[in-house]
Amino acid sequence: MQDSTLDIIIVGAGLGGTCAALYFSNSKRVALISGTAPAASTIAAGLVNPFAGQRMGGLWNASVAYQDFLHTLRRADALETYNPCGILRPALNEAQASLFRTISLEKPDSFTWLQPDQMVGMYPSITAPFGAAITKGGVADIPQMLDRLITSLIPRCTVIQNNLTNWEDHGSEVTAVLDSGRSLKTKKLILAVGAGYQSIPKLRNLNLHCTKGQLVHVSPVSEIPLPVSGYGYAVPIEDRLILGTTYEHAPQDLEPNEEGIAKILALTQQMIPSVASAKVLSASAGIRVGVPGTRLPMVGPLTSNVWVLTGLGSKGLLFGSHIGRNLENWMTNPSSLPNELHLQKN
């Protein structure tokens, strides 16, 4: 590989980079450089929620992105890492309840409205005085999913455990330098480095922002049959409940702490009262990289042969596959890149 030019080098083996490698390696000579920066992709389980956010149905391209997520799982023989169980969304106020009822009429195949009395009968452990919706979506085992993606890549993609230290775009090709001292030549370089962008001077002027997110694992006191999202979220996994999350905009470290745990417990017990008496088993923390203003990923060329894929934030499961599946077309025809995802600089 040192003596020949690759078609694509992808730096970063999180959700975005790995999905991109899966699709590019179908027809290209690809190397995936897996870095060591902390990432949101390392959490145990994540919600795949095409109706994320307070506006629900207003998330850009969410329906298409969800189908691309399922397509990616099928392609990597990883469907069993995802449970499409639906997500329970208690309405937080009467205005949101009205919105939920409207969406349930517009999208009955993916959105079911439950009146408050129905909630009491069906889900007595969950507080929903304004009613709730069950939406399309579910829970992904992120470590297992990434492992399946990497396994499916190995026959046709070189995976290198190293970090990128520098690169040079020569116009006809790019030279990528690793911290081992090794240099690789490629026609195109894709940077999907997540929080690692902070250590790369050429990326520091991008309009990106890191937030720390903490999770708490508790032993459930009452039965929670579905993931719940509203005041934070709760994901039932085997013998525990994963509760999240914090959004810490100036983190001093990457460790969970008592303040974060207390905030999550106080938040989630507003919709699951039994959390107040649940035993805390463990806590964890990760870093998300987002794009202020859009809250959508950022994709685009730094130079003619060097592209950036970043800013997935808390929506990596939903958008990682969508970007990975479309990136080759966008790089071949840059005018087809959606305006919503264009590169932004400070």
List keywords for this structure.
single chain; 346 residues; alpha+beta; FAD/NAD(P)-binding domain; D-Amino Acid Oxidase, Chain A, domain 2; eight-stranded mixed sheet; five-stranded antiparallel sheet; 7 helices
Q: Overview of this structure, please?
A:
This protein is α+β, with helices and mostly antiparallel strands and about 350 residues long. It has three domains: about 150 residues, FAD/NAD(P)-binding domain, CATH 3.50.50.60; about 50 residues, no CATH class; about 80 residues, D-Amino Acid Oxidase, subunit A, domain 2 (D-Amino Acid Oxidase, Chain A, domain 2), CATH 3.30.9. Helices cover about 25% and strands about 30% of the residues. It has seven helices and 19 strands. The strands form four sheets. Strands 1, 2, 9, 10, 11, 12, 18 and 19 form an eight-stranded mixed sheet that branches. A five-stranded antiparallel sheet has the order 14-15-16-13-17, covered by helices on one side. Strands 3-8-4 form a three-stranded antiparallel sheet. The longest helix has 17 residues. The two termini are about 35 Å apart. The model has no long low-confidence stretch (mean pLDDT about 95).
